[in-house]
Amino acid sequence: MAAFDTEPLDEQRRYGAIVTGLSPGSIDDPQVRKALLTLWMEKGLVVFRDIAGGIDTQVRLSEIFGEPEVHPMMEGTDIKTEHRALAPIEFDPEKDGNIYEIGGKVLGGYLPWHFDGAYVERINHGGILRPDILPGRGGETGFLDQIAAWDLLPEQLRERIDGLSVVYSYQPDFTRAKFGSQPDRLVKMSELFRTGSAHPSVQVRAIHPAVYEQPGTGRKVLHVSPWFADGIEGMENEAGDALLGEIIEHVLKPELMYFHQWQAGDMVLWDNWRMLHCACGVPPEETRIMRRTTIVGDYGLGRREVIAAA
Questions:
Q1: Is there a domain that residue 223 lies in?
Q2: What single DSSP character describes residue 35?
Q3: What is the value of pTM for the model shown?
Q4: Strand, helix or coil at 201?
Q5: Nearest to 276 by CA among 198, 181, 197, 188
Q6: What is the domain extent for residue 208?
Q7: CATH of the domain at 217
Q8: What CA–CA distance (Å, rounded) separates 271 from 268?
Q9: pLDDT computed for residue 198 by the predictor
Q10: What is the pLDDT of residues 224-274, one digit of tens each?
Q11: Residue 310 belongs to some domain of the structure
């Protein structure tokens, strides 16, 4: 008897899978672990539905795909969670949190499209997100596969971008992002984001290839994060910005997106080496509390910018 069942994502057939019927007791079975790892590498995004066990299951699941690690922006802070490998993703109107106005709506906890760690040289391999307190409305998480994005990219753009690299820096104010869609205005910036600019890990810009091959499969990944992008290495000028803007416009196509409607008992695993994600935000009176594990890893292609001496 199969340890779990799989089906395609709702309204998205290019990538991803939904896993049902997985019990916490089967997680340690070597065959189950091998099957889940293969599924993750093939699909990029796995939704575990109605899985019991809370924090313990989340951490044990994460260990299938790599060692859970402390999120780099939590290093050296006094943030406390129920487990060292858990990071809080929270918006609570009674506490500190980001608030932006977007398309005439005021939203808390919004995050633009990005992959984690673009602003440092070592990109974690992924994460698992689990809801603790869900809002009454809003709070969806968006995902977008950049293997699928490469497959849909016009040939002339493939030829222009392949072999180039993108320069990234930490930008806590989304209205000042150079690429992708920007909010109308910043209403309130959280203390965590405001102090993040002083974190030692973000003082030197990072550089990552715009395209690379997925290890083990050779599939091309269009590796571009709209949030944090400063420009193309060696082309931080009008022409380079126009090229990167055109690429990002092709990446952020609605037909490539999947927006997860959270339910109690969900856990969502994504491959950060190939997926973009975003947080759609909640009305400012709502509360959304999530717990996320970060899976250690380094695809080995990132580096720090070297500043020539004057």
A1: yes
A2: H
A3: 0.93
A4: helix
A5: 181
A6: 5-304
A7: 3.60.130.10
A8: 10
A9: 85
A10: 999 999 999 999 999 999 999 999 999 999 999 999 999 999 999 999 999
A11: no
